[in-house]
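Page 42, continued from yesterday. The earlier attempt failed because a stray header line got pasted into the input along with the sequence. Redoing it now with the clean sequence only.
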Amino acid sequence: MSITKIVVFYMMVSAITIVSGIDVYFTVETKETIISNEQNPIAKWIMECTSVSVFIGLKLITTVFTVLLLQIMLSYAKISKYALMITFGIMLFQLGLLCYMYLDFYGGYRAAIRLSMF
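This time it went through. Structure tokens are written below.
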């Protein structure tokens, strides 16, 4: 595999982990109201059955597991091209999630101001 593809892969993995970190940040910032405002029914169920802290731990574990699995896929020559496609798909989903969370969390105009403070 070329060095360019490897660099692109790790840039996409970096984007995935950064968005995951921002998601955890938003969850911590809204921990008092997150259960009532959560839009994902599975996430809401997990938080109702356990706690927000357990949910954050599960988010972190699944992110680490996903990144590890993507790296393992990249290391096998037969499926490395699929690793790039899957990583690209996950990255697009995460970036879409970031846009949705950010606009929902801060609201239109204020989002640009808040982002500069990040």
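Notes: Residues 3-117 form one domain.
Reminder to self: strip header lines before submitting.
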